[in-house]
Amino acid sequence: MNTVRLDVGEDTGVAVVTLDRPGRLNAVDLAMARELSDVWRGLRFDDSVRAVVLTGSGERAFCTGIDRDAVVPQPSSPYMQDDPLLGVGPKANGLWKPVIAAVEGMACGGAFYLLGECEFVVAGAGATFFDPHTTYGMVSAYESMLMAQRMPYGEVARMVLMGGAERLSARRAHEVGLVSELTEDGRASAAAVDRAAVIAGYPAEAVQGSVRALWAAREAGLAQAFAQAPHLIALGNLPGARQAELFAARRPGFRTR
């Protein structure tokens, strides 16, 4: 693998999956999308792994969503869409082992496909969360639907509608329930591994059954919402050239709350 690292602690039962494109702020290109899917599917068969930590390489970002240089041709119909990020999460690949996200730096846009399929999130104090879709003339569909399962409606709506002008601090994310634990900067991964090791020490069948039960409580609503997403995106997104213009003209200023 070139874009994802997998480290298995045989003594702890914990695997650490690291998004490894720090030079691109761990943005997901098509190669990373394939490798993530392969990693999750492979972990289903490794009985030595009983819990997983997902993190990003470097200090600047956990993940900044889809790489803007990735070329993804789309069908002309508003009812069909090819979205490589739909296959990057553990649940999308049938992995029912608990996954804990460890977030340092930025987590934005398509990062929510991953965070939305983790059991809980541990974040460093300097982590920030935001969704810039609307700023660039894009519909936030799957991202907002996943976050609506983890945060109060008003918080998700504000994050989505404020776009790139505002970022959710780790402190505020903890207050509204997106983040379950705050650490000092640089300590999120270590804390997540500690929590994962505790979980890995419990009987695997009970843990995995509990993960599956928790997801079952969410997936019916998500399936109904996801069914609306392709045509919402197709009808609401600006043409790619116009999106690129808005992206190039973006201003660096933002507020963090």
UniProtKB/TrEMBL annotation:
GO biological process: fatty acid beta-oxidation
UniProt-listed Pfam families: ECH_1
GO molecular function, one term: lyase activity
CDD domains (UniProt xref): crotonase-like
Keywords on record: Lipid metabolism, Lyase
Gene3D superfamilies assigned to the protein according to its UniProt record, in alphabetical order: 2-enoyl-CoA Hydratase, Chain A, domain 1
SUPFAM superfamilies in the cross-refs: ClpP/crotonase (SSF52096)
Classification via InterPro entries: ClpP/crotonase-like_dom_sf, Enoyl-CoA_hydra/iso
Family under the similarity heading: Belongs to the enoyl-CoA hydratase/isomerase family.
Protein name per Swiss-Prot or TrEMBL: Enoyl-CoA hydratase
Species per Swiss-Prot/TrEMBL record: Streptomyces capoamus
